Amino acid sequence: MEISESKKAPQFILPDSDGNMISLKDFLGQKVILYFYPKDNTSGCTAEACDFNSSLKAFDKIKTKVIGVSKDSPKSHIKFRDKYDLKFTLLSDESTEIIQKYGIWKEKSMYGKKYIGVERTTFIIDEKGKIEKIFPKVKVTGHVEEILAYLSKKWEVKMLYVTRREVFSASHRLTNPDLTDNENVDIYDKCNNPYGHGHNYTLEIVVAGDINPKTGYVIDLKKLKKIIKTKIISKVDHRHFNYEVDFMQGIIPTTENIAVGIWNELVNEIKEGRLYSVKLLETENNYIEYKGGWALNLENVSEKVKDILTEIGEDPEREGLLRTPERVAKAYKFLTKGYHQNVDEIFNRAIFEEKYDEMVIVKDIDFYSMCEHHMLPFYGKVHVAYIPNGKIVGLSKIPRIVEMFARRLQVQERLTQQIADILDEKLHPKGVAVVIEGFHMCMMMRGIEKQNSTTTTSAVHGAFRAEKTRLEFLNLISRNRL
Q1: Is this structure's pTM higher than 0.90?
Q2: Which domains does the chain have, with CATH numbers?
């Protein structure tokens, strides 16, 4: 049976975690994400399952069901489900009959060894049981976001789009501290001028929404103009992006990054309609258009914090608490910013060909994260090592990757694995090792209240599975600091 988009999806009847027989026909009338994965409790499959689990509310909004399928037994699925509190359906295909019908039982290789297994693949099944979209050879990182972006676009309702255009002049210098002077000149050319390089920019802000029956507007243009002038133009006009624009500090001020920065400044300021896109023209022929995804609604979060203050017996209107809801909302925006960071933007062409093949270690990286069970902080140190296989990465990128995954609701075990997996995926090294030592406030300030307990987790790939290499790494990270 040929498997392709627009064809009927192969039917199945498979047991779920509780032994109930589930058929694809049970889901006619709603869209289904049918994702096939190799094995319960492996690092990539755990990360993928947790990503789907944390996005279930978003899938519910677009009336989409998530189903995971592997050759594991229902008993294995129960342990996997309960360990990570998974709320979606897991189906068992121990005979691989359905996996083979979907054409994903294939020859694979790992560390030079060939074997037959499940090729990680996701199918979007439409309301009539047809295959709408196939995501083959899935890479775990960013996959759920990719699916959400696809489905959200398909579900986008017809609406009106209002555009406001502004112009401003600004200068920048494009330079990456992880590159040599010659590499910076080669990549950025005249924009690498130490004295700066100027442009006359044209900025177009697009707001989407329905017509307000009371005003006849999608958004009051006077208000939109004021927001753009106050939040953007006053900060960037006749300024140097590298030194004088607060939201671009520590970021290479390419047109791409400037457009993303402008989006982040505006997305929570526009209350009528919603910010749809930021278009930035650097020259007459070159422009960047950014359509950001979901963003934290500070106003909604503030209202929820007010409710919590009331429920615990406080008065949110008293002087000391008047701005607390707003402050808490902004704090959560910062503490969860990792959900909206992109791995490729972090690496930003800082992966280089290099023959070095000895261990590279970055240790004692401070991290702060939020426990997903109690939303209380946990913090500590991360130690990362890899053995290059022809490629190295700029050293500053490793702490940035740690920061991206830490700034989410997390468990330490998953955080450890995600850091190891992404380095393995992007660098294809001979081996990767990650150790995290953490203090958990959910154990220290509540519950068992043990003040001096630490939690240590590790994840190893490739060469670090060998005892000698692993011991060398552990010995090096345990030495006294410089």
Answers
A1: no
A2: 13-155 (3.40.30.10), 160-290 (3.30.479.10), 298-335 (1.10.286.10), 339-478 (3.30.1130.10)
